[in-house]
Amino acid sequence: METIIIQLLNGLDKGSAYALIALGLTLIFGTLGVVNFAHGALFMIGAFCAVTLNRILTLSHTVIDETQTDFLGNPLKVEVPYVNGIFGEEMGAFIIDWNVPLAIIFAIPIMVAIGVIIERGLIRHFYKRPHADQILVTFGLAIVLQEIIKAFYGANPIPTPAPDAFRGSFDFGVLLGFDPYTVIYPYWRLIYFIFSMIIIGAVFAFLQFTTFGMVVRAGMADRETVGLLGIDIDRRFTIMFGIAAAVAGLAGVMYAPINSPNYHMGMDFLVLSFVVVVVGGMGSLPGAVLAGFLLGILQSFASMSAVIETIPGINQVVIYLVAIIILLTRPRGLMGRKGVMED
Amino acid sequence: MLGLDKKDALLFLIVVAMVVLAPFILNPFPTDSSLAQFNAGYPDLMQRFLIFGIFAVGFNILFGLTGYLSFGHAAFLGVGSYAGVWMFKLLGMNVLLAIVSSVLMSAVFAVVIGYISLRRSGIYFSILTLAFAQMSYALAYSVLSGITNGETGLQLSHNDPRVLGASVNADGSLPVPNLFGLEMRATETLNIGPWAFDFNAGYYVCAVFMIAGFYLAIRIFRSPFGMMLRAVKSNQQRMHYTGLNTRPYTLAAFVISGMYAGLAGGLMVSMDPLAGAERMLWTRSGEVVLMTILGGAGTLIGPVLGAGFIKYFENIFSKINDNVLHGWFAFMPDGLENAVVWILHPFIGKGWHLTLGILFMLVVIFLPGGLVEGGQRIMGLFRRSPKDGAKQDTEASKHPAE
C-alpha cells in the first residue's frame, strides 16, 4: 500500500510536467494547427529564466569588511549582492532564497514575448505549408534556441535550489495513518503538482469563462467563420501562442529545482510530451492533461521493483508501448476530435 | 547506359567519379599549408561521408518519394551495427558476412516496425516510428544488455567463438575486419610534391556499396514502383478511391529504406567493429532528416550532398577556433578584428550546431528543395529558360511531404 501511494505521488510530479507541456502543445496545435517541435525548447528557456534571475539577483560587488579578518589579519573582502544594498540585508537574503518563485513573475512577460515573436516572425509563414515543413522548421528552431542557451550558459547542468522553506520532505504517510517515514515526499514536488493544477485550471477557466477564450474556442472549431464575423482571429491566436509559450516556460521555471537545468532538457521532455499529446488526442486539451498524468503515473508504477522483476525493462518502454497500442486501437487518442490530422 | 536515360546516366557518372576520386578532390591543400586543416581526405572522414550518404539515400526513398516522415530510422542503423558485430564475433571477420547479416536483420526489423507504423500516416506515423526507435534504444541500454553489452557497447573480445577463423591472432591481438584478407584499415599514401593522398581499402569497399546503392536508388526513382510511391505522396486518398491498396508499396519503400540504413550500420562496424546504443537515439534519426532536407528531399543527389555537407561541417568546420579566426582577420585594425572574432565566436568550433541549425531553418524557409533547388536557382539565373527536366525536378521537390 505504502509503495503504491509513493509511486502514485512520484508519478504526479512527472505527470504534471508532461501535462503542462502537452497542454501548451495542444493549445498551439488546436489554435494554429502547427505541430511545434520547439516546445521543449520553450520549456528549457523557462528553466533558464530561473537561472538568469538567480544570476541577476546574486550580482555582487566586493566590500571590505573591517570587522572580520582573514588568517593573515587583513580585513576580509566580502561579496555583497546588490539586492542587499537596495532592500537591506535581511530582505535581500530572502529575495535570493525565493528566487525560483520570483522567477515566475520574471518569466511570464519574457515567455509571452518570445512566443509572440516566434509566431509573428516565423510560424505564421508556415500555416499554408505542409505539416512536415512545420515540424522541420520548428525542429530547426529548437536546435537554434538550445545552442544559443548553450553558448551563454555552457553545457553543464546549473543547480537552482528551491527556497529553504521547501527544501525538506513531507511525511505524507502520517496524514493517511501510516507509520512515520514510510511515505515521504519532497515539499517542492508537492508544490509543483499544486502549481501545475493551478495553471491548468487557469488556462481552462480562461478559455471557458472569458469572451476572449470563447472567441478562441470558436476559432479552434471553425476559423474561417469566426474570421467572416469580422473578428481578428489571427491576433488572438498569436496571443494564444504567447500563452502556450508561457505555460511551457512556467513548467520549466518550477521544474528547475527538481532537475538542474541543462540545455538539452527540453528535447528529453519533448519526445515524451509528443507521445502524451498523441495519446490524449491531437487538439484535445482535456485529453492532453489526462494523458499527461496517466502516463506519468504509469511510468512510475512501471518502475516499481516488483513490476520490473516480472517484466524486465518495462519502466523504460511503458510510455512508448502504451502510445503504440493506443494509436493502433484508438487512432484519435483518448479524447481526440474527429477529423483532426487524419490525413 | 545501364538502363538509365541520358540525364540520369550523366548524374550517375558524376557521382561515380566523385566517389572514386574523392581522395584527390577532398585534399586540395598541400599538407604543410595553413589551409591543410580543411582537407577532408583522411580515411575515417571519407568513410563517414559515404556511410551517411547511403543512410540518407535510403531515407530519401521513404521520405522523398512517399512523404512519410520517419523519426526513427536510426533504429535500423543500430540494429544493423549490432548484427554486424555479432557476425564478426560468431562467424568470421569477413565484412561481406557482416554486411549481409546487417541488411537482413534490419530488413526483418523494418518489416515489423513498418507493418505496424504504416497503419497511420502524417504526424502519427512520425510518432510511432519515434516510439519504436526510442523503445529499441531504451531496451538496448537496459534489458537486452546481454546482446548489446549495454553502455559499454558491443565489441570484439578475446574469447569470441569465431567459427571461420581464430578468436585471437597468434600475437594475441584481436583480428581486424577484412575482405578476403584485405584489411579495412589498410591505407596507401601517395605523395605528389607537397600533397599527400590517402587510399584506404575500407573507403573503397564503402564506395562500391555507395555506387551500387545510388544506382539502385536511381532505378527505383524511375521505375513504375517509384511512380506509385510519388502518387501516394501527392494524394493517397485518391489512390484508395481507385481501389488500390497502397500499403504494400509503402511497406516496400519502408523496408528498402530500412535496409539501406542497415547497410550503413553494417559498413560502420566494418570500419570500426564497435556498436553502441546511442546510435539509435532519436537525435540520430533527426540527423538523417536534416541531411535529406538540407540536400533536397525527393531529389537523387540531394541526400548525398546533404550528408557530405553536414559531415564536413561536423568534422572540419568545428575545428575552426578563435586563433584561426584571428589569423583570417589579421588585416583589420585590432579593435575591429576582436569585435569580428567576438561576433563569430558562438558560431564556430563547438558552436557549429548553432550554425547548422540556422542554416537548416533558412533552407526549410526559403529553399524547400534544399541545396539542389538552390543550385538550380543559381543555374536558372545564368540560363534564361531552364530546361524542362530541371523545372520538373523543382516542381516535384517543392512539396517534400504532406
Please outline what is shown here.
The complex is a heterodimer of chains A (about 350) and B (about 400). Chain A is mostly helical and about 350 residues long. Chain A is about 70% helix and about 5% strand.
Describe the structure.
Chain A has helices at residues 2-32, 39-57, 82-87, 89-97, 99-121, 131-153, 172-175, 187-209, 211-221, 223-228, 233-255, 265-280, 285-302, 305-310, 314-329, and strands at 60-69, 75-81, 169-171, 184-186. With 343 residues, chain A is mainly α. The longest helix of chain A is centred in the first third of the chain and has 31 residues, at 2-32. Chain A contains 15 helices and four strands. Chain A starts with a helix and ends in a 14-residue tail after the last helix. Chain A has one domain (2-45, 100-329). Chain B has 402 residues and is mostly helical. Chain B has a domain at 37-280: ABC transporter involved in vitamin B12 uptake, BtuC, CATH 1.10.3470. Chain B is built from 17 helices and six strands. Chain B has helices at residues 6-25, 43-66, 74-90, 95-117, 122-141, 145-148, 201-222, 224-234, 236-241, 247-271, 282-295, 302-315, 322-328, 334-344, 352-366, 370-382, 388-397; strands spanning 154-155, 178-179, 182-183, 187-192, 195-200, 274-275. A two-stranded antiparallel ribbon of chain B has the order 1-6. Chain B has a two-stranded antiparallel ribbon with strand order 2-3. Chain B is globular. At the A-B interface, helix 6, helix 12 and helix 15 of A face helix 5, helix 11 and helix 15 of B.
Write the layout of secondary structure elements.
The complex is a heterodimer of chains A (343) and B (402).
Chain A: H1 2-32, H2 39-57, E1 60-69, E2 75-81, H3 82-87, H4 89-97, H5 99-121, H6 131-153, E3 169-171, H7 172-175, E4 184-186, H8 187-209, H9 211-221, H10 223-228, H11 233-255, H12 265-280, H13 285-302, H14 305-310, H15 314-329
Antiparallel strand pairs in A: 1-2, 3-4
Helix pairs in contact in A: 1-8, 1-11, 1-12, 1-13, 2-5, 2-6, 2-11, 2-12, 5-11, 8-9, 8-11, 9-11, 12-13, 12-15, 13-15
Chain B: H1 6-25, H2 43-66, H3 74-90, H4 95-117, H5 122-141, H6 145-148, E1 154-155, E2 178-179, E3 182-183, E4 187-192, E5 195-200, H7 201-222, H8 224-234, H9 236-241, H10 247-271, E6 274-275, H11 282-295, H12 302-315, H13 322-328, H14 334-344, H15 352-366, H16 370-382, H17 388-397
Antiparallel strand pairs in B: 1-6, 2-3, 4-5
Helix pairs in contact in B: 1-7, 2-7, 2-10, 2-11, 2-12, 3-4, 3-10, 4-5, 4-10, 7-8, 11-12
